[in-house]
Amino acid sequence: MAPKQKKKSSRRKKSPKPILAASEDMEPVNMESMGHPEIYPLVLTTKTQEIFNCRIDEDITDEQPYKLINKEDIFEDLRNRAAVSDFHPVKKIVQEYPGNELLLVYDKDFKYGLNFYLIGTEEGKENYLNPPEVSEEQEEYKEYIPEDVYIYKPPVSKPWVSLGSEKEIEEASVTESTKQITYMISRKRSEFGAPIKFSDQNASSVKDAYIECTAYPDKNFTLKQLEKDVGMQVIPQIKDISTQTKWTYPKNATTQYYPREFSEEEKETLKQSKPLVDFLNNASISVEIALQQNEITNTFIDDWKHLAEEEGTFGDKTDTHLKEYQSFTDLHSPTEKMITCVSWHPTIYGLIAVSVAVRLSFEDRVHFSGKLLLQPSLILFWSFSDPIHPQLMLESPDDIFCFKFCPSDPNIIAGGCINGQIVMWDITTHADRIENVKAGGSRSKKATLKPMFLLEPESNKEAMYIRHCAVSSIENGHKKVITDIHWLSDTFEINRMGSVFENRSGICCQLVTCSADCALCHNMFWDIRPQKPLTPQTTEKKKEENIEIPFDVPSTFLHLDLSWKPLTKVRLSKGETSLDHCPTKISLKEDHLLCKTQDKVLAQSKTAKAEEMNPYHNLESGMPNLLKPIDDFCTKFFVGTEEGEVIYTDWKMEKDPETGRLMPKKPVSLHTIHDGIVHTIQRSPFYDDIILTVGGWNVAIWKESVMTGPLLQSCCAPKRYTSGHWSLTRPGVFYIGREDGYIDIWDLLEKTHEPAQSQNICITMITCIKPWIFSSKQQFIAIADYYGTLHILEIPWTLSRPSTNEMTSINHYFEREVKHLEYVEQRKKIREQEKKEMEQEMAKKKVKIYQKSKEQMEAELKMDYESYLELEKTVLINLGLIKVTEKGSYSDVM
Amino acid sequence: MTAEVEETLKRIQSHKGVIGTMVVNAEGIPIRTTLDNSTTVQYAGLLHHLTMKAKSTVRDIDPQNDLTFLRIRSKKHEIMVAPDKEYLLIVIQNPCE
User: Fold this and answer.
1) pLDDT band, very low/low/confident/very high, at A521 (cuts 50, 70, 90)
2) Which long-range contacts (CB under 8 A, 24 or more apart) does A64-67 make?
3) Which DSSP string corresponds to A180-224?
4) Which of A414, A671, A744, A866 has the highest count of CB atoms within 10 angstroms of its CB?
């Protein structure tokens, strides 16, 4: 819209005219910078707009955004308002303006910065009002032409410009460099196919028949050896001769010889000869020197090597946990059972016997006694090869709480019942069944594949119930549950008095049991051989009680059945009171040997087989009368009681001088260490006189000769200890089972104040622990729990293999503990003495003080009185009541 | 004479750790022994050869030298051989405890 004339306008010179009330002499700003020098932007206030009638949107609209203003009006405004007038900045323009009317344009878009602008030239005015046609043309010129018809122009060929590509092509092309030679060979056709004749020819005779490349020595490649490493040895002359012979066939040839020996006479004559004597005299000197050297010291010992532990280990040294091997549960029993006692079979590998009892309290037992009668109480024989079916089941009249294999014959088993009876079994007839237990296992696997009717009638799969052979007499036996049963060693036997005699039969024939009945009998010694009838009455009773026995029960112990009386009874009295201790476990001197009777038993069984008669079946010969008594036999044994006491007492009876009856001796020592029932008393398999007792919440180790107290007494554990056992191979290790299913493994060489490690086995109370050695590499531990599951775990190498010198170290430890106890005893005595002395001194002191104080008081009183008198005198003198001269009379009066 | 012989041998046998003593002649035939026959014969035969070999070795190295005593220390025992022109005295001892 705006005219686009580029006109150079002369710059406004400063006008010489004085400006009315103007402090500043401003030059009007024009839009030369924007290319429109004639445009002068202005701001017009509303007042000005009203004056000139150029109000926005009223006088000046979009269609007519300009107004022609008279010059005179502008001048008038200028005169009226002077500097305030809006036209002040463009005053000069207005004055110089040639025409009469000025064009004022409304700048709606503020194109030039202000809302109005004034066009300062006539030409500009004219251009604005009448835009020239040129601009239209220019506008037209600037319009974009949208459509353009595309005219096809064919390409014009241009001359080719070489850029070097023909050379590349030349190089890449293949051309024949040489001309090909063609040969044409022809021959007469008749000569084709003719027979060929070959002949020899010497190559060298014909010239140029061959070409050779002769070898020649090249000096560049010759090596001269300057040094040679040679070894020399002088050997005797050797002659090597070989021949070839005719060898027809191999023949075996043997020679037999026997050494030359002197006859007896020759030996005698030689002995007499002088040279021999001389030789011996000379030689024996040097020999004795050598022997003594060896006795003094072993020169070949490498101390450094001996310091280290043995290197050969099987398995991981760092693995110290017991690994689960197998577990057995009786799935067929209707009621919940717990395992009361576990015992490994002494000879057969992989066979373990377990006694199960119903898991009820006494009240429940009484309540359900009818139901319990119908269920058989069993001892189960488990084998490693068959974890589901027990191999054998021994039946008993009531729940068995402890049982033992007879050490001299593993087919005899003695068990103690809950009702106080002893039950005996003889499984000799079934021995072959369990001996072939491993083979039987594989056979049973095959049997499961066959249908039932093809099975042999005597299949090994079914476990057989074996009835007991004998039970003890109910009236004469224990009244309460038998808590412990032991076979006495076969080296000695006991008579009624408790004296010890040697055992000629070579078998274990006596048992000792203990029970907690507080009425009369506690420890009983039983003999399994038939006793001579004391009175005719008993024989009659026997005849009456000839009950029909089932045919498959062996008659080994028929003489004992229901009439078996104990040999002797030992009571543990508590001294003056009539109360007795209630024993729970006992430990005899020879017991620890029973663990290692494998070899002994084997030897004995072999001899027994040789005799073709089991001595146990021949028991009816009765007790021989004359036996040699064994003197100096230690008849003392350890007893653990229900109250947690450990008693060391004697089973030999002595005659009470007052009443003349046989009385048991008083216990040698008694200690209350444990807070609960002592359920384990066990001798160490390595030491005769070290005993482990476990009960309540703690563990104690005793030495037999030291009666002042235990060598080691552990502090109270967080959980109750329910079973314990020594390790069979490591002298310082023992296993303790807790009531929460954890097993604590103690290692005396590692820590003595707490277990070395603790491992969780099951969720319930552990009732029995029994380790067993199978081979030098394999050791198992059987752990029985309260819910009737028997866990078999493998003992890792570190726990089964003793370290070198472990026994000596443990020995030293025990000796130290003994010394410590002695020291404590001595200190106790010293302390008591000191205490006594102190008390005496205190008493003396008191007396002295009392006396002293009395004298002192009198002296003090006297002094006080004298000083008072002096005071009285001086006061009176000062007062003038007494004259100085009269002083003497006063003192005389005193 | 015999008593002397007996006494000497008994004295040697009573040393600590001695397992056996034997007197062998130059050909390796045992004259007197405290072990059983088969063991004696075995020891005598083997040790006789070994002693001969040891003697010849010593003589070969230095002809003026001669073997006076031979001790063989093994893991379990020590075998001592006192050679002579005509006889051989063999003692077997267990030196360690």
Assistant:
1) very low
2) A65/A105, A65/A106, A65/A108, A66/A103, A66/A104, A66/A105, A66/A106, A66/A128, A66/A129, A67/A103, A67/A104
3) PP-------GGGTT---------TTTSTTS---------GGG---
4) A414
> Residue A531's pLDDT band (boundaries 50, 70, 90)?
low
Cβ <8 Å between A275 and B86: yes
Q: Any CB–CB contact under 8 A between B9 and chain A?
A: yes
Scan for tokens 């003593």, then name that residue.
Answer: B21
* Alpha-carbon gap, residue B17 to B36, rounded angstroms: 18
pLDDT at A601 over 60: no
**CA–CA separation, A639 and A642 (whole Å):** 10
Which residues 260-279 in chain A show a CB within 8 A of chain B?
A: 260-262, 267-268, 270-272, 274-277, 279
Q: Point out the least confidently predicted range of A24-38, A51-65, A552-566, A640-654.
A: A24-38
**Which amino acid, one-letter code, is at A553?**
V
Q: Which of A83, A92, A79, A99 is nearest to A30 (CA)?
A: A92
Six-digit token pair at A331?
């799935």
Q: Give the residue from A755, A680, A748 showing the smallest Cα distance to A718.
A: A755
Question: Comparing A153-157, A248-252, A625-629, which segment has the lowest mean pLDDT?
Answer: A625-629
Tell which of A294, A299, A302, A303 to mutate to test the B interface (max B CBs under 10 Å): A294
The one-letter amino acid code at A436 reads: N
pLDDT of residue A616: 56
At residue A631 the predicted structure's pLDDT band, cuts being 50, 70 and 90, is: low
Residue contact B31–A270, C-beta within 8 A: yes
Which strand ranges, in their side-by-side order, compose the sheet holding A400-405? A400-405, A412-417, A422-426, A470-471
Rounded average pLDDT over A684-709: 84
More confident residue, A533 or A647: A647
- Rounded CA-CA distance A818/A320 in Å is 31
> A288: distance to nearest CA of chain B, Å?
7
Q: Residue A661 has what pLDDT?
A: 64
**Per-residue pLDDT at A840 exceeds 80:** yes
Query: What would the mean pLDDT of A312-322 be, rounded to a whole number?
Result: 63
Q: What is the DSSP string of A687-706?
A: -SSEEEEEETTEEEEEETT-
- Hey, are the CB atoms on A288 and B30 less than 8 Å from each other? no
Could you give the dihedral angle defined by the CA atoms of residues A549, A555, A556 and A561, in that order, rounded to the nearest 10 degrees?
A: 30
Average pLDDT over residues A753-780: 86
Query: Length of chain A, please?
Result: 894
A726's tokens: 């020594």
The overall longest dimension of chain A from CA atoms, in Å, is 205
Cα-trace Rg, chain A: 65
DSSP character for A450? S
Sheet with A698-703: strands ordered across:
A678-683, A690-695, A698-703, A712-713
Judging by beta carbons within 10 Å of its beta carbon (0-12, 13-18, 19+), is residue B17 exposed, middle or buried?
middle
Q: What type of residue sits at position A207?
A: K
Kindly report the nearest CA distance between residue B49 and chain A, in angstroms.
Answer: 14
pLDDT digits (tens, 9 = 90+) for A783-797: 988 888 888 888 888
DSSP A786-841: TTSEEEEEEPPHHHHSPPTTHHHHHHHHHHHHHHHHHHHHHHHHHHHHHHHHHHHH
> Which residues, 6+ apart, have CB-to-CB distance to A668 below 8 Å?
A636, A648, A649, A650, A707
Q: Does residue A30 register a pLDDT over 80?
A: no
Domains belonging to chain B, first-starting first, are: 1-96 (3.30.450.30)
What does DSSP say about strands A482-487 and A422-426: parallel, antiparallel, or unpaired? unpaired
Q: Give this complex's ipTM.
A: 0.86
The mean per-residue pLDDT over the stretch A827-845 comes to: 90
Q: Which of A291, A300, A303, A808 to mutate to test the interface with B (most CBs of B within 10 A)?
A: A291
Compute the average pLDDT of residues A518-535.
60
